[in-house]
Amino acid sequence: MTPQTGRMGHNDALRAARLRAGWRTIGQAALELTEHGQRLLDDHQFAVSARTWRRWEGERPGWPSEETAIVLHDALGRWPEDLGFTTPPGWIRPEHHEEADVKRRAFVSVTVTAAALVAGPVAPQHVDPALIGYFQQQLEGHYRADMYLGPHDLIGTVSAQYQLIDKLVRSAKGETRRGLLRVGAAYAALTGWLYQDAGDMDGASFWRGVTQEIAMRSRDPHLVGYSLVNQAQVRTDLGDGPAVIDLCEAAIEDSGRLVPKVRIMALQQQAHGASLTGDRDAVDQLIDQADGLLGRRWTATPWAARSRPTRPPARRHPVRSPR
Questions:
Q1: Least confident window among 51-55, 121-125, 167-171, 267-271
Q2: Mean pLDDT, range 190-207, rounded to an integer
Q3: CA quadruple 11, 315, 69, 200: dihedral sign
Q4: Would you say residue 232 has pLDDT above 80?
Q5: Domains in the chain: how many in total?
């Protein structure tokens, strides 16, 4: 077995990236990449056939043209050498030509996200418990807006509201404080997803860390599990299968205390991690476990009302219909 071909002589790296993108079949992947490339390059002649994609996932994937390599990177977040293709001599990633600019943008990104946190002590103030409901209602609006606007137009708004919540938490007491911590975790998680959706993994990692910090401070086991799944989502996009599995196993270590929704999210994400490591048997087992929880009664969890829209890896046998 080699990194290029994966298990059983197939390019599992590209297959895992395809499934992570939600492209369940080779035909769908070819169509989605064709449409993505035509938009990116403003070239209606750009096309990738299902036959070509099937070869890419085969034993000898070859190497795509530089134009196709750029489209693959933009669509899947990875260059061909990280997707199991055979790297030709002399290949230099386009991003290496702009390495200094990339580093500058990464520094600016983390600096901007850090600025969203309130620095230093704040003056005490009365915090009305009704603010918890107010922020929850605003959050629902942000979820809807994300569907229509995308991440870039919302990052500033959502992170600014988190800054206000962070400030109020410092003055709030008792149940009001715990309620604000929970809703604050939802805002931090949404901000992390917006950065991740925008392709800014530094910003995403920062905000996933903020989500986990608040989850720990809230002492809510469901929220802690949810925050670990958030961290696993970043690791999935980074292609780090073992880390995804570690985080998801930690999330469901005491699964009896978790609401079904968080357990399903953790199992689904762990299936992605198993797919990245080429463990197809584990993928099937994890999806079976998640499927068995679908009929359970749901508990209202505003902080998990929105999770990253990923689909589990494909199975070798059908999933039972949820009751």
A1: 121-125
A2: 85
A3: negative
A4: yes
A5: 2
pLDDT given at position 301: 58
Residues 49 and 37: beta-carbon distance below 8 Å: no
Over residues 33-53, the mean pLDDT reads 91
Same domain? 126 vs 243: yes
Query: 128 lies in which domain range?
Result: 117-304
**CATH number for the domain harbouring residue 154:** 1.25.40.10
Residue pair 247/215 in contact (Cβ under 8 Å)? The answer is: no
Q: In the structure encoding, which two tokens stand for residue 91, read together?
A: 């290949």
User: Contact at 8 Å (CB) between 303 and 182?
Assistant: yes
> What's the longest Cα–Cα distance across the chain?
66
pLDDT at site 100: 42
SS3 content of the chain, % helix, strand, coil (to 5): 65, 0, 35
List of residues 6+ apart from 207 with CB closer than 8 A = 113, 159, 188, 189, 191, 192, 195
Confidence (pTM): 0.57
In sequence order, which residues have a C-beta less than 8 Å from that of residue 43 and are 6 or more positions away? 37
Query: Looking at residue 291, what is its pLDDT?
Result: 86
Q: Is residue 136 part of a domain?
A: yes
Query: What one-character-per-residue DSSP string does 138-187 give?
Result: HHHHHHHHHHHH-STTTHHHHHHHHHHHHHHHTT--HHHHHHHHHHHHHH
